[in-house]
Design goal:
By secondary structure, the chain is α/β, with parallel strands linked by helices. It contains 14 helices and 14 strands. It folds into two domains: about 270 residues, P-loop containing nucleotide triphosphate hydrolases (Rossmann fold, 3-Layer(aba) Sandwich); about 60 residues, Alpha-Beta Plaits (2-Layer Sandwich).
Length: about 375
């Protein structure tokens, strides 16, 4: 009988022994608290969750650590799809995630995750959530596939089915023969894949991913984002991504929540945030864009060059677009691409942080 088959209360000392980081202890305890009898899991019906209702709904959530207030009156509704949870270090993101998982109790306020009330139904919530922590979380001497099988067994999946799912999920994550190696020999990128596989092996309707692309090379980062996008759009999963890599959020998110100093600064759809105040077109040319810029300005159009060398031309009407093409043709300028301009995630983020009242203290993350 393997370790993954011995899911009993006597496992707790083993978890305490091998968890060397606070984050590791947190996630393994979260997995353990997820354990329940098959009957209890059967009664927790995912089909009852309405896609139209908010996946996460928080009302006036406040969390204080003695005299320090980490979260200030957090009220937000996160819809189905992919939500980017952003904020500078110390904004309160990790504290909020722990509250969502029922690992911390808020000082005041109320909330629901997948229709389940926080604290009153914490165990049911953990059954329906897959959590990928930022810190490494594994038991030494186990292989990658054994680690994923262990996570599946903690979610009361029978041993044979847990092993089958583990191989299937590792295939999905792009893991090859390295799945049979001990996890302590893994690279950073492989450990990211392993944590991701552990989070999704029990097929939860909601994923909370903490820095899922950290430490990945560009190709692996694109692959990870493609998996996240596919889980949401093809398989109907709701996903919360907590990250500092802002382009990742703009690439995959449908909704964005930005925390600053323990407060919600922004909670809006990505499409609305990306839409510039003044409609404009972004034009990329072959070679220097200065000639086209001068020609368009001579026609009375407002044009600027951004940091990437592309032109931002105010106006996106059919006549504006026609004028751009005509001007380029008259001056023998080759247009490589022309797309509606969007606010960059960096601009959105900085404006949200600057909107926080001066003098606000940072929250603990």
């Amino acid at each position: 009988m393997g370790l993954a088959d011995r899911v009993e209360f006597r496992l707790v000392p083993t978890i305490l022994k091998y968890s060397t980081k606070p984050g590791s202890l947190l996630i393994l305890n979260a997995y353990f608290l997820n354990s329940s009898t098959p009957t209890e899991r059967k009664s927790s019906t995912v089909a009852a969750i309405s896609i139209e209702s908010p996946v996460i709904e928080l009302t006036s959530i406040t969390k204080s650590f003695r005299k320090f207030q980490a979260l200030h009156d957090i009220s937000v509704s996160m819809p189905a799809g992919v939500t980017g949870l952003l904020g500078p270090n110390g904004a309160g993101k990790s504290t909020l995630i722990k509250i969502l998982l029922g690992l911390l109790r808020a000082t005041s306020g109320d909330g629901h995750v997948l229709g389940k009330q926080l604290w009153r139904n914490s165990r049911e919530i953990r059954q329906l959530v897959g959590y990928m922590p930022e810190d490494d979380c594994y038991l030494p001497s186990l292989s990658g596939v054994e680690c994923v099988q262990f996570a599946a067994r903690l979610n009361c999946i029978p041993a044979t089915e847990a092993l089958r799912r583990s191989h299937e999920i590792l295939d999905f994550c792009g893991a090859g023969q390295e799945r049979y190696r001990n996890v302590e020999t893994y690279s950073t990128g492989m450990r990211q894949k392993l944590k991701f596989a552990q989070a999704i092996v029990h097929d939860p309707p909601l994923l909370i991913l903490d820095e899922p692309t950290a430490g990945l090379d560009p190709d692996e980062r694109d692959s990870m984002l493609h998996r996240i996008r596919g889980l949401s759009r093809v398989h109907g999963k709701s996903i919360v991504i907590c990250t500092h890599i802002l382009p990742d959020v703009q690439q995959v998110s449908d909704f964005v929540v930005i925390l600053a100093a323990g407060r919600v600064s922004v909670a809006k759809p990505m499409a609305e945030l990306s839409r510039p105040t003044i409609p404009s077109m972004q034009v990329r040319t072959l070679g220097s864009a200065s000639l086209l810029q001068e020609a368009l300005q001579a026609r009375g159009m407002s044009v600027s060059i951004n940091q990437t060398g592309a032109l931002n031309v105010e106006g996106n009407s059919e006549q504006d677009i026609k004028s751009i093409w005509q001007t380029a043709a008259q001056h023998n300028v080759v247009i490589r691409s022309m797309t509606p301009a969007r606010n960059s995630m960096e601009t959105i983020f900085l404006e949200a942080i600057q909107a926080v009242p001066q003098g606000s203290k940072h929250a603990y993350s």
